């Protein structure tokens, strides 16, 4: 399903028709729309072409929901409701033809292709100012690098990368995009694109309200940090490149943690509020509104929303995640709802219970939009889409925030045996939530802090476990709280296994399988992910 996307930062509402579902990502020709034809004759024409690149950000198949099914295979989250395809993904029992995987591939490549069209078309543009050309080119390089990264780390393997092509290659448009030899070759291309983007893009703080949501320099630098961290599992020298980039994001990009809200809990809660969509912690998000954007807040809300709003009831935290928090860590209650916890829902205080939750928990981070209103009528609340079939909200879905940059800096320093230096970025995060500093943090400290700071976010706990080699965490059985009465917030519970032990095999499961139909259509040009 495609949703109408409201890109608040570009002030453009774009309807992407159902035909987009069947567009081949290997099609590099213009496709009948002014936004993809190479005859841009004004700043407005080029801005429309750029806007089209952002459209897939809020699709259900991408950062609305489906890309999270692969992250759901970690130890932090369980599916929640029975959904056979998603259960099979979590259990690594798949072929690659599953719509929740194959459609992600298609739509993210569609996004990459839109960026290629802008990169190819900009030299032909007439009547367009140099400033608009340069920014548009920077945005296109960012979107190409960003979408390529998600494809590479999800489907790319050290012994076989994912397909890529671009208009800088002489055979572009005349061939099937070649499959690169290794995911590290993909990472090298992504770094090249992100560096070009960083060189061309303005700083976020120079954007007016009408341009918030466009790619910006700190976002390009931020994804360079993440690409280097993922690349470092194959080439440890990449860790040395991260600290300087992190400092540039802080000093030039003016990125910083949100603090000063009165209490440690309020500091952390402020990150996940509509008022702070664009504050200093923002690096990159899915821009969302009542007319479209990421539906993830509604997807992770109680199924049918206690009879008030149509939540979907997916993606529920595990006992293992709950137990990871230190006893006085306020991030636990901001992140997770458990039976009996108080929360405000459409203007009324409630005590949490769930007839749906497999684990007895719910993600709380994204619930602020549902707190407003004077009665239990979703239609009166302009913070959310009134349709439960497309439950987007005015809360942007964070994909990268400054806290993750600090954690990558700390990890990079620890990996270089500079543990004492890693204390500063790690403890900056702990101080924000009122926790005691760690004088000389270890890799175990870093893993803990990354898990609890970024829990239930789109930072990919499964990818972390894979790059750290912590396969035992993936394989362990997962637990939840089974309450005697699922309609009683005070009901007693027993901790029980809710997901049996799995069989993650690093010889096979380090990357997801490509759709076999994609391989067939390539006439032998593509090979399946090693092990599959």
TrEMBL record:
Main location: membrane
Domain of life: Bacteria
Keyword Signal attributed: yes
Occurrences of domain SusD-like N-terminal (ranges): 25-228
Keyword rRNA-binding (UniProt): no
RagB/SusD domain location: 311-532
Alphabetic keyword roster: Cell outer membrane, Membrane, Signal
Gene3D superfamilies: 1.25.40.390
Localization terms from the record: Cell outer membrane
A family per Pfam: SusD_RagB
Secretion signal, residue range per the UniProt entry: 1-20
Family: Belongs to the SusD family.
Protein name: Membrane protein
Naturally occurring in which organism (per UniProt): Dyadobacter endophyticus
Lineage, uppermost ranks: Bacteria, Pseudomonadati, Bacteroidota, Cytophagia, Cytophagales
């Amino acid at each position: 399903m495609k949703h109408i996307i409201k890109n608040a930062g570009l002030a453009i509402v774009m309807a992407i028709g159902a035909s987009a579902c069947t567009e081949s990502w290997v099609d590099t020709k213009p496709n009948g729309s002014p936004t993809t034809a190479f005859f841009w004759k004004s700043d407005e024409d080029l801005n429309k072409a750029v806007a089209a690149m952002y459209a897939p950000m809020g699709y259900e198949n991408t950062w609305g929901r489906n890309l999270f099914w692969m992250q759901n295979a970690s130890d932090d989250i369980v599916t929640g409701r029975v959904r056979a395809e998603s259960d099979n993904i979590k259990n690594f029992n798949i072929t690659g033809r599953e719509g929740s995987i194959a459609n992600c591939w298609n739509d993210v490549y569609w996004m990459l292709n839109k960026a290629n069209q802008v990169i190819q078309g900009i030299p032909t543009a007439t009547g367009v100012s140099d400033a608009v050309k340069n920014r548009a080119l920077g945005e296109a390089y960012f979107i190409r690098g960003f979408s390529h990264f998600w494809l590479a780390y999800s489907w790319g393997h050290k012994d076989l990368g994912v397909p890529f092509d671009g208009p800088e290659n002489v055979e572009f448009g005349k061939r099937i995009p070649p499959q690169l030899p290794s995911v590290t070759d993909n990472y090298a291309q992504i770094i090249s694109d992100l560096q070009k983007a960083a060189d061309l893009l303005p700083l976020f703080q120079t954007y007016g309200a009408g341009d918030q949501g466009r790619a910006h320099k700190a976002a390009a630098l931020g994804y360079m940090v993440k690409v280097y961290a993922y690349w470092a599992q194959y080439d440890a020298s990449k860790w040395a490149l991260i600290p300087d980039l992190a400092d540039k994001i802080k000093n030039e990009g003016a990125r910083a943690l949100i603090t000063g809200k009165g209490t440690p809990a309020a500091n952390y809660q402020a990150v996940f509020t509509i008022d702070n969509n664009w504050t200093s912690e923002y690096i990159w998000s899915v821009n969302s509104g009542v007319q479209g954007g990421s539906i993830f807040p509604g997807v992770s809300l109680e199924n049918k929303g206690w009879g008030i709003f149509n939540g979907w009831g997916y993606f529920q935290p595990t006992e293992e995640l709950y137990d990871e928090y230190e006893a006085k860590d306020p991030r636990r209650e901001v992140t997770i709802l458990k039976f009996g916890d108080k929360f405000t829902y459409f203007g009324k205080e409630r005590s949490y219970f769930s007839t749906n939750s497999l684990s007895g928990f719910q993600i709380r981070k994204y619930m602020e939009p549902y707190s407003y209103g004077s009665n239990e009528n979703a239609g009166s609340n302009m913070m959310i889409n009134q349709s439960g079939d497309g439950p987007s909200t005015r809360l942007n879905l964070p994909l990268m925030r400054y806290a993750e940059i600090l954690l990558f800096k700390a990890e990079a320093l620890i990996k270089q045996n500079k543990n004492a230096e890693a204390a500063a970025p790690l403890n900056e995060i702990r101080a924000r939530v009122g926790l005691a500093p760690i004088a000389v943090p270890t890799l175990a400290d870093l893993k803990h802090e990354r898990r609890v700071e970024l829990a239930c976010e789109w930072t990919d706990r499964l990818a972390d476990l894979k790059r750290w080699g912590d396969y035992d965490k993936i394989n362990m059985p997962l637990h939840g709280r089974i309450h005697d009465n699922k309609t009683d917030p005070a009901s007693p519970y027993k901790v029980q296994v809710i997901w049996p032990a799995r069989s993650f095999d690093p010889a096979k499961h380090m990357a997801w399988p490509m759709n076999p139909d994609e391989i067939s259509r390539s006439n032998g040009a593509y090979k399946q992910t090693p092990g599959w």
